[in-house]
Write a structure and sequence with these properties.
The complex is a heterodimer of chains A (about 110) and B (about 120).
Chain A lengths: L3 E4 L2 E5 L4 E7 L6 E6 L5 E7 L5 E4 L2 E6 L4 E6 L8 E9 L2 E4 L3 E6 L1
Parallel strand pairs in A: 2-11
Antiparallel strand pairs in A: 1-3, 3-8, 4-5, 4-9, 6-7, 7-8, 9-10, 9-11
Chain B lengths: L3 E4 L2 E4 L5 E7 L6 E7 L5 E8 L5 E2 L8 E7 L2 E6 L8 E8 L10 E2 L3 E5 L1
Parallel strand pairs in B: 2-11
Antiparallel strand pairs in B: 1-3, 3-8, 4-5, 4-9, 5-6, 7-8, 9-10, 9-11
Classes of the chains: A mainly beta (about 110), B mainly beta (about 120).
């Protein structure tokens, strides 16, 4: 059974500093996704990572995938208040997705 | 990207009544649709997977007689919560995939339905 672990679950960030969220998964998968969720809203797709060594960047967010270590990271550069949200990684299992518990980010000045 | 809608966005009902939630893929044909449930400050839990024209596959612990799923066409799936009780109050999110909308099994998420059972 595929298990997905995210850490930390909560992250209080200071504006302008850098942070990393980690996503570990237990069995081989061919795809990994990162999503953002704002309170009361559904999921917004951020990144799709398909291969070992894949790196994608959008603004202050950069995601990478190491399939050998079964690890993905979401790196936040120079945090700003707009990044406050909950971030989920999800790993493909057949046609389904298994989600991590989510990391709630709070950015303060 | 592909667009998925859900209706209603919010529903309040009395205990014992049934509620139907619709999930539509607006610009692609979804061969597979998924239903998730999310409790406050928790992750998404997959409830069931449905393929057009066939019976849904429910995850362990999900009562299929309580959560009726129908995927009658390639653009519409419905979730009916039968005889709803307060513990069924939750945020229900559908997603859709397949049909060539993505080349890598990506799921496209609807905006969610907030169900409150009084």
């Amino acid at each position: 059974e595929l298990k997905v672990e995210q850490n930390p679950l909560f992250l209080s960030m200071q504006e302008g500093k850098n942070y990393t969220i980690y996503c570990n998964y237990s069995t081989t998968s061919d795809r990994l996704y990162w999503y953002r969720q704002d309170p009361g809203k559904s999921l917004e797709s951020l990144f799709v990572l398909l291969s070992n060594g894949a790196v994608k960047q959008e603004g202050r967010l950069m995601a990478s995938l190491d399939t050998k270590a079964r690890l993905s990271t979401l790196h936040i550069t120079a945090a700003v208040h707009d990044l406050s949200a909950t971030y989920f990684c999800a790993v493909g299992a057949g046609t389904a997705l298994i989600f991590g518990k989510g990391t709630t980010l709070s950015v303060s000045s | 990207g592909a667009v998925v809608s859900q209706h209603p966005s919010r529903v309040i009902c009395k205990s014992g009544t049934s509620v139907k939630i619709e999930c539509r893929s607006l610009d692609f044909q979804a061969t597979t649709m998924f239903w998730y449930r999310q409790f406050p400050k928790k992750s998404l839990m997959l409830m069931a997977t449905s393929n057009e024209g066939s019976k849904a596959t429910y995850e362990q612990g999900v009562e299929k007689d309580k959560f009726l799923i129908n995927h009658a066409s390639l653009t519409l799936s419905t979730l009916t919560v039968t005889s709803a009780h307060p513990e069924d109050s939750s945020f229900y999110i559908c997603s859709a995939g397949g049909g060539g909308a993505s080349s890598y099994n990506e799921q496209f998420f609807g905006p969610g339905t907030r169900l409150t059972v009084l």
